[in-house]
């Protein structure tokens, strides 16, 4: 089965949230097919309020998006190659300077030897319009800002079909932005991990994993200076090297034929080379629950507590702990019509009581989504959905609310 296209961790606006999700939903349906190759076209339109996510604004717009999707799933002896990709051209009706081309590509090679050795080599890359109001000390911007994310991963396992499994992995991530104002969020990092997993029973899998992450923010802001040529203030930046170490205790429990529980509890510690950034030492973790009581109904619940380095603005939001949860579900009204809903909340708090020279801060972002998918025929589908995003913040400039709604059709040829 081809890899399902993943969305970026953050999307540029409620509009793109609606568009990309609408594009990806039918694409996922196609990748569930057993055909070794597919290709198709998409066309959609959405209406969004508060394009720039301002605290008090009425900047509405309509966006038309055309796209291409393609994928393949091939067996190569014992190996399996999967590729999926999408390309979108987004055209704004009023804010034409925001017109952009986005893409999302992902591939993986699952390999195995004659013995108990196997693994995965994977890569993914995405390009999209970045968030206009990202917070974290950055004033909202009102220009096109392109965000690009790349990730490469290698995993090797020994003893997959045995009671104990040894697993090692390496992951490289990098992120870039076209807007100079977002320079502090540019990063690259490498993570190595080694863990052992035990399966004491058919429904339970336990693991102990050690992880170490080393990375760099090449241009983290450290102050202001006056440009002698223009006599205007400019941001002074310096590289920040960071090092994070985690010990993970994991568990996967299949509580029944229709329910699965995944947990992780970690002891985490991160250090930064810049004195102005607070180091972190504490407990992080996550819980995920999937439940499918019937063939038509499915629910999922996720909760996590971690630093922004791992959960929000990768490797940049280092001095704040976030707690987040997400609840989603879907229901098959008929064999061709499916309805889904999702809500999530992310709360970040930072206090100066730790001794760091930072101000108290609070950030609470909530997202709501409801969608309807109609499979007209085997190769033709239509998705319509509504999204709402809102943020409450201790800094009034970062608070906003926005809505979007739209529909996208997709035709697949294989």
TrEMBL record:
Task: Give the UniProt keywords, A-Z.
Answer: Signal
Q: Where is the signal peptide?
A: 1-29
What protein is this chain from?
Beta-barrel porin 2
């Amino acid at each position: 089965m081809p890899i399902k296209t993943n969305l970026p961790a953050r999307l540029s606006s409620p509009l793109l949230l609606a568009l990309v999700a609408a594009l990806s939903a039918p694409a996922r349906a196609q990748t569930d097919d057993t055909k070794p190759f597919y290709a198709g076209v998409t066309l959609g339109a959405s209406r969004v309020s508060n394009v720039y996510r301002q605290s008090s604004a009425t900047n509405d717009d309509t966006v038309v998006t055309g796209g291409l999707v393609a994928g393949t799933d091939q067996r190569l002896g014992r190996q399996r190659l999967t590729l999926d990709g999408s390309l979108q051209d987004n055209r704004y009706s009023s804010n034409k300077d925001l017109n952009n081309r986005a893409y999302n590509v992902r591939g993986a090679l699952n390999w195995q030897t004659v013995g108990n050795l196997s693994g995965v080599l994977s890569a993914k890359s995405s390009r999209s319009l970045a968030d206009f109001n990202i917070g974290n000390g950055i004033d909202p911007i009102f220009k096109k800002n392109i965000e690009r994310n790349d990730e490469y991963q290698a995993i090797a396992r020994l003893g997959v079909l045995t009671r104990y499994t040894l697993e090692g992995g390496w992951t490289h991530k990098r992120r870039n932005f076209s807007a100079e104002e977002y320079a502090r969020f540019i990063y690259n990092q490498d993570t190595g991990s080694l863990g052992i997993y035990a399966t004491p029973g058919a429904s339970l899998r336990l693991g102990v994993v050690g992880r170490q992450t080393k990375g760099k923010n090449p241009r983290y802001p450290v102050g202001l200076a006056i440009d002698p040529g223009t006599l205007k203030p400019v941001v002074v930046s310096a590289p920040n090297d960071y090092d994070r170490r985690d010990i993970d205790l994991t568990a996967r429990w299949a509580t029944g034929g229709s329910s699965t529980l995944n947990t992780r509890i970690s002891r985490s510690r991160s250090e930064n080379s810049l004195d102005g950034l607070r180091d972190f030492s504490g407990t992080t973790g996550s819980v995920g629950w999937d439940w499918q009581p019937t063939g038509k109904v499915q629910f999922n619940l996720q909760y996590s507590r971690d630093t922004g380095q791992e959960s929000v603005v990768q490797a940049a939001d280092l001095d704040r702990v976030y707690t987040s949860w997400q609840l989603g579900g879907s229901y098959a009204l008929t064999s061709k019509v499916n309805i889904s809903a999702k809500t999530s909340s992310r709360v970040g708090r930072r206090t100066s009581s730790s001794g760091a020279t930072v101000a108290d801060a609070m950030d609470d972002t909530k997202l709501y989504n409801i969608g309807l998918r109609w499979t007209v025929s085997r190769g033709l589908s239509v998705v319509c959905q509504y999204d709402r995003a809102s943020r409450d913040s201790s800094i009034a400039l970062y608070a906003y609310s926005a809505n979007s709604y739209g529909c996208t059709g997709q035709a697949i040829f294989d």
